[in-house]
Amino acid sequence: MHRRFIVGNWKMHKTISQAESLVTDILQIYQPQASVELAIAPPFLSLPAVARLLASTSIKLAAQNTCASDEGAFTGEISPPMLRDVGCHYVIIGHSERRHIFGETDQDINKKVHAAFHHDLLPILCVGERLEERQSNKTQAVIQQQLQTGLDGIESKNFEKITIAYEPVWAIGTGQAATVDQATEVHRHIRSFLDTQWSVKSDQTRIIYGGSVTPENAKSLFQSPQINGALVGKACLNSESFVKIAELATSS
Ligand code: 13P
């Protein structure tokens, strides 16, 4: 049985001082539980300030993206060694907004996953289908392709360290979360695909769900043994709703 994993993806929200006050509020009300791991992914600029606040806590720091290269002429990019240096433990890779707004390909994402492992950053690899793909019964094929290329060349031993986040594009920021049955079905498919393609015991791999997770729907999502946690967007920008989701992960 995995510890549940709850990750707050702040996306492009909060200045440094707003970040400090949100984290301070979270720390005031959150009672850490051994059965749940919490991580916070603020924008790059706030990473040092959030790292200082989290230093003596069990909450881990995550980045929202990384460059695949260590250093060089890559204007505007941030590298894995920089993220390690600031105290990041995890890095979100291949978020739907990176894929669909910034044009990241599965090949780009694969390079980032390798670069993260190379620098001891644990990847949270996001996959998910668009609405029209679901409607034309392509969900499994789309996700298989994202995994096949995104995880190409990853050693079996690393499947214990990677987290897969299933985030259906149609559920992100829409208020229309996947049902527990829809998410469970895809998580199960991801596990069997990992088992057959990489000969890993995929019950070692954490698979979390993202897309309009709220304190209202988290309990039912966490009732599925296939759902090992949540990647939370909007609801993590408020200390009470984020902590509530973490508490539901403990108790469900
Ligand atoms: P929302 O929770 O706002 O739908 O965002 C989900 C997400 O994209 C987390 O990475």
Brief description of this entry?
This protein has 252 residues and is α/β, with parallel strands linked by helices. The chain has ten helices and eight strands.
Layout of helices and strands:
Blueprint: E1 4-9, H1 16-29, E2 36-41, H2 47-54, E3 60-63, H3 80-86, E4 90-93, H4 96-100, H5 106-118, E5 122-127, H6 131-135, H7 139-150, E6 163-166, H8 180-198, E7 206-210, H9 215-222, E8 229-232, H10 239-251
Parallel strand pairs: 1-2, 1-8, 2-3, 3-4, 4-5, 5-6, 6-7, 7-8
The structure holds 1,3-dihydroxyacetonephosphate.
1,3-dihydroxyacetonephosphate binds near residues 167, 172, 173 and 210.
Descriptive keywords:
single chain, 252 residues, alpha/beta, TIM Barrel, eight-stranded parallel beta barrel, binds 1,3-dihydroxyacetonephosphate
CATH architecture: Alpha-Beta Barrel
Low-confidence runs of at least 5 consecutive residues: none
| Ligands present | 1,3-dihydroxyacetonephosphate
Largest sheet: 8 strands, parallel, barrel
Q: Report the structural category.
A: alpha/beta
Share of residues in strands: 15-25%
CATH class, anyone? Alpha Beta
- Global shape: globular
Structure description:
This protein is an alpha/beta fold and 252 residues long. It has helices at 16-29, 47-54, 80-86, 96-100, 106-118, 131-135, 139-150, 180-198, 215-222, 239-251; strands at 4-9, 36-41, 60-63, 90-93, 122-127, 163-166, 206-210, 229-232. The protein has a single domain (4-251), classed as Aldolase class I (TIM Barrel, Alpha-Beta Barrel), CATH 3.20.20.70. Helices cover 41% and strands 15% of the residues. It has an eight-stranded parallel barrel with strand order 1-2-3-4-5-6-7-8, surrounded by six helices. α1 (16-29) links the parallel β1 and β2 (36-41). α5 packs across α7 and α9 (215-222) packs parallel to α10 (239-251). The protein is globular, with a radius of gyration of 17 Å. The structure holds 1,3-dihydroxyacetonephosphate. 1,3-dihydroxyacetonephosphate binds at residues 9, 95, 167, 172-173, 210-213, 231-235. 1,3-dihydroxyacetonephosphate binds next to β8.
